[in-house]
Amino acid sequence: MTVTRLTAAELHAGADELADLLTDTVDGGASIGFLAPLGHTTALAWWRERADAVSAGRHAVWVARADGRLLGTVALSFPDKPNSRHRAELVKLMVHRDGRGQGVGRILLATAESAAAATGITLLHLDTETGSPAESLYVSAGWTRVGAIPDYAAAPSGELRPTTLFYKRPGAHADGT
Question: Would you place residue 172 in the very low, low, confident or very high pLDDT band (cuts 50, 70, 90)?
Fold first, then answer.
């Protein structure tokens, strides 16, 4: 498996394949900001809208591939305010249903964490659906649970679900040092 960071041009060129991944992820029940059924045209437009932020350095996107096939993606979103440039939000960790259970999510997560540390980011944060497989991944990867917010977002089915907030200091040991 290879993991690469996409340029804005690569993101735009690969938007169709990324849209397929996004629709598969939503169809698989992952709560990543969209309701099911998610149409390919909507997913394609969403990915193309990310290209400007990648070009401007406000967003970084990595993809995981095996045998030429897109298996997953993860992104970091960087704030534009001067008092928050030390942190980033981990967003849209997605693994195709065919790639689950193979460590793809863990590899993408580690890639984003390492990249954040290498660029001077000292704090990462994220939110994920409470009780989801993603929540278990973050706990096992050493992220710190802050708390849960009830009825925070609708699952792909439309049902309101709680979300759990996490943070991590990239490069820190499990004890926070």
Answer: low
